[in-house]
């Protein structure tokens, strides 16, 4: 029997980690998923023990504190998970000479640009969540040369808490919804992101000249949260009845939140397509596929919406 490469996924129970673990077999990897309560990314000794005993060839950090609004009042926890944890992980990877793929967010940008953000554009987050993720990126860059930082945006899947599931739950309960229509971004299906990460991992595993550094990956096409909500309900109604009759477009000013969000956080993904030949689907196509797989998803109550 040939040796199968082991990939370690930190945050294996989250929406991206779950997709990674279930798709890894297709790429010929043995997937090891670690998450709370058995594993804590903020525990450097636990990280060291995991890397020393698991015999892994690559680590993927899909763990994050993503409660954007709560982070404003839980700053210490947000930085512990999003900055200190990746720092411990990158240092351990450096000691054991293991490459790391670290997932970050579009919220490291302030949204003042009006063309898609490039990897080289200056970061300037508007909220604690974005600041903590920016600090995590720097920690990885400082500690480990063989890293890939992968920024994504507006992440959703059939697993975990996210905007799609929240909208479907509310659309089952209410006849009218009010959704922000002046924030622009790129909805990203966690299944597509997982496939892209595994595609990159396969290239790293095969050797050759890997171009380490920072990359962007998100769904193809631009939407507002309002346009995203309209498409979610339009597609879902093909298979399940929804109570909602109207989705009103509102401004950010009309929907006050503790955390400020970028008005424009569209990511340019040409670098990852060029360097790793990663294909990117239109977000509407990916959303349709996700909803077809889980027609009863709208009945699940969500308690927290993850922005990215």
Structural features, described:
α4 links the parallel β4 and β5. The chain has helices at 15-23, 44-54, 75-96, 128-143, 163-173, 190-205, 225-236, 270-276, 283-293; strands at residues 6-10, 30-34, 58-61, 100-105, 147-152, 155-156, 176-180, 184-185, 188-189, 213-216, 223-224, 246-250. Mean pLDDT is 93; it is low at 297-308. It is globular and about 55 Å long. It contains nine helices and twelve strands. The strands form four sheets. A six-stranded parallel beta sheet has the order 2-1-3-4-5-10, with helices on both faces. The chain has a single domain (6-299), classed as Rossmann fold (3-Layer(aba) Sandwich). By secondary structure, the protein is α/β, with parallel strands linked by helices.
Topology (elements, then pairings):
Blueprint: E1 6-10, H1 15-23, E2 30-34, H2 44-54, E3 58-61, H3 75-96, E4 100-105, H4 128-143, E5 147-152, E6 155-156, H5 163-173, E7 176-180, E8 184-185, E9 188-189, H6 190-205, E10 213-216, E11 223-224, H7 225-236, E12 246-250, H8 270-276, H9 283-293
Parallel strand pairs: 1-2, 1-3, 3-4, 4-5, 5-10, 6-9, 7-12
Antiparallel strand pairs: 8-11
Helix pairs in contact: 1-6, 2-3, 3-4, 5-7, 7-9
What is the number of domains? 1
CATH structural class: Alpha Beta
* Low-pLDDT segments, ≥5 res: 297-308
Averaged pLDDT = 93
List keywords for this structure.
two-stranded parallel ribbon, 16% strand, globular, 308 residues, 6-stranded parallel beta sheet
